[in-house]
Amino acid sequence: MINVLINHFEKRQQKKSDIRTAFGVFAGVIGLLSNMLLFVSKLLIGLVSGSVSIMADAMNNLSDTISSVLTLVGFHIAGKPADKEHPYGHERFEYISGMLVSLLITFVGFQFFMTSIDRIIEPQSIKVTPVILIVLLVSIFIKVWQGVFYQRVAKKIDSNTLVATAKDSFNDVYTTVAVLVSASVEGITGLKIDGYVGLLIACYIIYSGLQLIREFVNELMGIRPDQAAIDEMKGYLSSVPEIVGYHDLLIHQYGPNKTFASVHIEIDDRWNLTQAHETIDEIENKFKEQLGVDLVCHIDPVNLYDQTQQFIHQELKKIIKGINSELKGHDIRLVHHGGKPRILFDLVVPNDFKATDQELKIRIQEQVYRKIGDYTVEVTFDHNYLL
């Protein structure tokens, strides 16, 4: 049924350019309707039965209803085109709406944490009726359906916000099952554990909210891209036979589908500007077409035929690899004018490397004196690149 619904909606939206926004709004509408239905039914039953755990679960559905509204607004704003104030578009607003949803979930959790504490201090009986049982079972079914629906739409449009919403839906299934256990235990044994179950639900809601907050804070701050995406970029760059090599890859994301990157491309220094420009243009166009990434390339000419330079390149790379195989040197240049000859190069250092930059420079300088000659080493240390 879910696949039929998604496929039917997709067929109706085929002529629209921004199918992602349309799917996000569609998911928000479905969530809004289903969560509102659950909230109203559970709240009424909770008030009739006097169950704090059922009312806590109802308020959790209210937060889900509000989150569906935020999802609708979030996808609507995220789908707006770039403008003068936002030249990279509005896609990051999806992260902001997800952040607001997470804050709302956490707030509701804290509210019911305090309510559950009060109910533990002054326990009250739950009025268990067949109607309560039926509504809670229906609630579980709807939430499972909702979670699977969110998951499939999230996979289709690659949305972390909907992935989080799906997770929240399944969390609701667990909390509703806990409510059923609470009511059943009291009905069978007479033990009033409603407050304790409500407390567990509240703690779980708080934990889920804080986890979601952490995820969206990371997205807003900027996190390392997915390794599969990095490997895909590396694979393409490695397949270009005309270039000598590449390094200093930087990737910036301004939303799920707004990715910008820059990289240094090493070319034969005998190329003319036209040949270099055509090759770089082709690389940038292929990145956009095949990977959906706006790439900017910086050209690094490399001398491939001067014997002195080639000897120094090879020996320096051996020295670097001998210190640590994860160190990577590039942009190696020789400067003979202005006094003592110098070797200038950039060195990519892993984040977990133990030695300081100064200690590393001293070790390289010592080995350059022994294995290459009387050159002064000048190193630019790179700690922020992916390659």
TrEMBL record:
Give the Cation efflux protein transmembrane domain ranges.
30-221
Q: Does the keyword Protease apply?
A: no
Q: Which UniProt keywords apply?
A: Membrane, Transmembrane, Transmembrane helix, Transport
Give me the segments passing through the membrane: 21-45, 95-114, 126-145
Q: Name one GO cellular component term.
A: membrane
Q: What positions does the domain Cation efflux protein cytoplasmic occupy?
A: 225-301
Note the InterPro entries from the entry: Cation_efflux, Cation_efflux_CTD, Cation_efflux_CTD_sf, Cation_efflux_TM, Cation_efflux_TMD_sf, CDF_Transporter
Q: Does the keyword Glycosyltransferase apply?
A: no
Return the Pfam families for the record: Cation_efflux (PF01545), ZT_dimer (PF16916)
Q: Where in the cell is it found?
A: Membrane
Q: Which PANTHER family match?
A: MANGANESE EFFLUX SYSTEM PROTEIN MNES, MITOCHONDRIAL METAL TRANSPORTER 1-RELATED
Annotated protein name in UniProt: Cation transporter
Native organism taxonomy? Bacteria, Bacillati, Bacillota, Bacilli, Lactobacillales
